[in-house]
Design goal:
This protein is α/β, with parallel strands linked by helices. The chain folds into two domains: about 150 residues, Aspartate Aminotransferase, domain 1 (Alpha-Beta Complex), CATH 3.90.1150; about 220 residues, 3-Layer(aba) Sandwich (Aspartate Aminotransferase, domain 2). The protein is built from 14 helices and 14 strands. The strands form four sheets. The protein has a seven-stranded mixed beta sheet with strand order 2-8-7-6-5-3-4, with helices on both faces. A three-stranded antiparallel beta sheet has the order 9-14-13. Helix 13 crosses helix 14. The longest helix has 23 residues. The structure holds glutamic acid. Glutamic acid binds next to helix 2.
């Protein structure tokens, strides 16, 4: 029996794989500190949970409209108007089964064989495999650490060919935490205006942003780009709702109805109960978001400072999301007890086995010089984890 070529062209998600490994070790009684998978360690806010419970008790447990309930689509339209000064009609909104599903759906309806999709590296682990699963070719454009890991207009321009179908841009970025400023985006917009390609703007970390930085995307920056910019978003990161699986998009009508069609033949509606909870999250009080961001900020500062104090480690200050992406490449070629570190994957294995900390190798994000640490764990665990890291690194000679 032979599997389809399509699925053999991609590997399983390294973030999900590492999470499973860390959880298995924990279940076996090993004291692992996981900087692995990126999900807020906070509880879903009480009023959001309450809305889910109410949905179950009110028997809101049947199929809903494939593209999401009108109440949630309305809340999403209002969110874009309120936060981003973007006007959409409900027909332009589709609710999906998590932010990952939002992007997967988009790759399926937009891309095909012969298409090239520009993905700045470091990138979120699933963009390239999703593009490959759609039959298209990911074109990876490496950004520079010295430039805060942000794609420049020149780098974008050089990557565009007649086959280019789209650019996937993620700000704040997973894994680097880089936030594109208005000026950064204006420069990129200049190139995009001359080249008719789609933009997938992955805004999932919009609300997790520090130092008073203002959030922009290409749709709200330039009215001419809005008709070909699709915003991928979700409630998971903002409201600590990763398990509820609610993502959403704002798109031109033709794209939104294509996604609804695909969804009608694949998943049908996202979970009815989770949709009700998402309405409460978007429409309700936002103080839990502020509290969460304040806690992330404290950890971020601690990590950046502590990592930069470690010999041979260099770590920029992320402006958003909840990851740090330190450069650890000075340890490559060093050894401990006959074990030599050849790259980020070896270093991650070494840290898991020798220091019992889980970090994601930078190679998974298209940059082997770094490793990613998600600091969505308590400050105390961050502290303990970094102590272990420093000690294990000091043994590499
Ligand atoms: N976006 C999160 C991460 O990068 C979730 C895991 C995933 O789906 O990759 O860790």
């Amino acid at each position: 029996m032979v599997l389809a070529d399509r699925i053999q062209q991609v590997a399983a998600s390294p973030t999900m794989g590492l999470d499973a490994k860390a959880k298995a070790l924990k279940a076996a009684g090993v004291d692992v500190i996981s900087f692995g998978v990126g999900e807020p360690d906070f509880d879903t806010p009480a009023h959001v949970k309450e809305a889910g419970i109410k949905a179950i008790e009110g028997n809101f447990t049947r199929y809903t409209a494939v593209e999401g309930i009108p109440e949630l689509k309305k809340a999403i339209v209002e969110k874009f108007a309120r936060d981003n000064q973007l006007t959409y009609t409900p027909e332009q909104i589709v609710v999906n089964c998590g932010g990952k599903h939002t992007i997967y759906n988009l790759t399926q309806v937009l891309f095909q064989e012969g298409d090239e999709v520009i993905i700045p590296a470091p990138y979120w682990v699933s963009y390239p495999p999703m593009v490959i699963l759609a039959g298209a070719r990911p074109v990876i454009v490496s950004t520079r650490e010295a430039n805060g890991f942000k794609l420049t207009a020149e780098e974008l321009k050089a990557a565009i060919t007649p086959a280019t179908k789209a650019l996937i841009l993620n700000s704040p970025s997973n894994p680097t935490g880089a936030v594109y400023t208005r000026e950064d985006l204006q420069a990129i917009a200049g190139v995009l205006l001359e080249n008719k390609i789609w933009v997938i703007s992955d805004d999932i970390y919009e609300k997790i942003i520090f130092d008073g930085i203002r959030f922009f995307n290409l749709a709200n920056l330039h009215p001419d780009l809005k008709p070909r910019t699709i915003i991928a978003h979700g409630v998971a990161k903002t409201y600590a709702m990763t398990g509820w699986r609610i993502g959403y998009m704002a798109a031109p009508k033709e794209v939104a109805s294509a996604v609804s069609k695909l969804q009608s033949q694949s998943t049908s509606n996202p979970c009815s109960i989770a949709q009700k909870a998402a309405v409460a999250a978007l429409n309700g009080p936002q103080d839990s978001v502020q509290a969460m961001v304040a806690a992330f900020d404290e950890r971020r500062r601690f990590l950046v400072e502590t990592l930069n104090r470690m010999e041979g480690v260099r770590c920029g200050t992320p402006g958003g999301a909840f990851y740090v992406f330190p450069n650890v490449s000075s340890y490559y070629g060093k050894s401990c007890q006959g074990r030599t570190i050849h790259g980020s994957s070896d270093l991650s294995d070494y840290l898991l086995e020798e220091a019992r900390i889980a970090v994601v190798p930078g190679s998974a994000f298209g940059d082997d010089t770094c490793v990613r640490l998600s600091y969505a764990i308590s400050l105390e665990d961050n502290r303990r984890g970094l102590e272990r890291m420093a000690e294990a690194l000091s043994r590499l000679k």
